[in-house]
Model the fold of this input.
Amino acid sequence: MKNYTRKYNKFISISMICLMITILMVVHINSHASKSNNFEYLKEVAQQKYTSDVVEYTDINIDSISLEAAIDEHCMDVENSTEDVCCNEVTGSISQVTADGSVQEIGSSVSGNTVVATESVGETGVVNNSGIVNDVNNQVADTKVESMPEVIEVENWQEIEGELSIKVNKQSSCVTIYKGETPIKAMICSAGESTPEGTFYMQSQWDWLTLIKGQYGRYCSQISGDYLFHSVPYNSMDIYDLDTEMYNDLGTLCSHGCIRLKCEDAKWIYDNCTTGTEITIYNDSNPGPLGKPGFTQIPEDQTWDPTDVDVE
Done:
């Protein structure tokens, strides 16, 4: 009887041990499956989040796509970009390009300042090699990024009623000529920090006039006192002795107080605006109703104004 009891107890003990091992194995397997399911779920959520936050494209695999691939596929091929729009050494996974041209990481690591945006739309964007601005939400700007023409003048302006007047925008380096209330011509210029603001009336005019530092201005029209409209300074009274560096600074706030102009623009004021013409000098970030004309610099060894009609 005792032997039977011992065998029965041993059997019960072994059975309990087997049962516990079975339970532990089931728990382990279920736990592993749960973790696997959670990982796939989190991965799916992450993929949806990155996709919706960055670009509204479907079927994007965040495990493999890089910013370079995203640009090549979805930003109209920036591979052949110019100096203004360039891509260099892009690595890592999905990232967004902010409006100031910097790269903000969203996935893993991204190196390099990959895209320089000269203009942008929306909160984030890149400029492709066609000059069209694309943001990462797949919205396209209505117009291309284009430079302004160098000559902006209304045709047949002489037929418009009213007197000529001149408005000088110091901050934007732009002169706008009006006929009555109608803007008819825009000119790129360079004023200076000391250029006075307010309303003035044109006084005397000179073909050539000595300026400060022994230089000379051509087609000079007096605004007030020593402040004039005139050409970019020459080192002598010779149209082939232009100060090239000063010419190339046109369009910036850099003069000693006068309003520097291209030769053709200084001559236009000299020829068309008479004594008593109203002149208003002000500051504004908006160049004016006609915009600010474009400008092309000249080579360092060129010593004449390309707009001068007397240059042969």
In short: The radius of gyration is 36 Å. Confidence is low (pLDDT under 50) at residues 49-99, 103-145. The longest helix spans residues 2-54.
